[in-house]
Amino acid sequence: MGNTLRRIGKNPPQSISLRQLMSKEIDLERRKYIVTGCSSGYGLALTKLLTSLNGHVIGTVRTMEKGKLTFDTVYEHLEKTQPKKPGLFETMELELTSLDSVRNFSQEYTAKHSNLHALVNNAGIGLLPEFKKTQDGFEETYQVNLLSPYYLTAQLVPLLKRGVRDYNQASKILFISSKIHHYPRDENFLLEKLWNEPKEYQPNKQYAYSKLASILVMLEMAERLESSNIMVNALDPVGSLSLNTNFHRYSEEDAKQNLMSFLRRFKQITSPDKAAYYALNILANPDYEDTTGEYFTRMNVRLPSRLANNEDLCIDMLDQTEYCIYTALKNKQQQNH
């Protein structure tokens, strides 16, 4: 398992500055963007930004009660800021702890919309105080941060392909990641114990491994989807997670403070509103139109961790992810019969 991952994207250009990007007049022309986890924190900030630039944003929420509150918040923002070309915003229900919910969302979206320009896999969870399994039988951190986002992405690939045709430009998939993915060092743990209950559950470690796993999957997806003109990248929004977002909904106070101490140590605290422009840079900057298989920090391309440069590990992780999803769906189908 010593192969180095082939860099599949074109050499990325020198990035523009955040100030230059913020000064640009960008029109997203009502192209459709799905942002998961749009009710708070980074997802809400990105939703506001895309909508203010004439994007058509479909934001996912865990309950429709949150959907109503988020809908009002976004349109209050548009009313207050008065953008030149306001876009459209709607919410749809999606619970990432359930593969059934992912499938239902995909079917409902397909019934309502004919295409998709970009999918932002933003929703995540971390720092669970104790080991917890979902109804599908997986450790919750890994299902929410990896299995369900991948299943959602796979379900929406046909619509992303239609987006390439209808908008006459590359479609985008963006995984929101974290610098904490550099923490894991043990590829055997990653492959052998990913779905099983660890002997000693550690919230920070579990979160870090889930983020590394999502980058491995992202890199292999980029390899497989490049020929379809679908660009797949990951972004570290640099500590834009405040302590009052849904990301921390199950976290104990000590675990929250430990993560924030880690972020401060690496100077990784950024406001969500500012960090939303980092995603916009990947989604709408023409300089990155054909960039795929890259890991961004702020406005720049950076190398991911050492384990992410292992081609065999990327392939194994995606294959294992697909196998776990297939097995869970098959078992549920058999139980229903």
From TrEMBL:
Pfam families: adh_short. It comes from the Eukaryota. InterPro entries: NAD(P)-bd_dom_sf (IPR036291), SDR_fam (IPR002347). The keyword Oxidoreductase applies. GO terms for molecular function: oxidoreductase activity. Keywords: Oxidoreductase. Transmembrane segments: none annotated. Belongs to the short-chain dehydrogenases/reductases (SDR) family. This is Predicted protein.
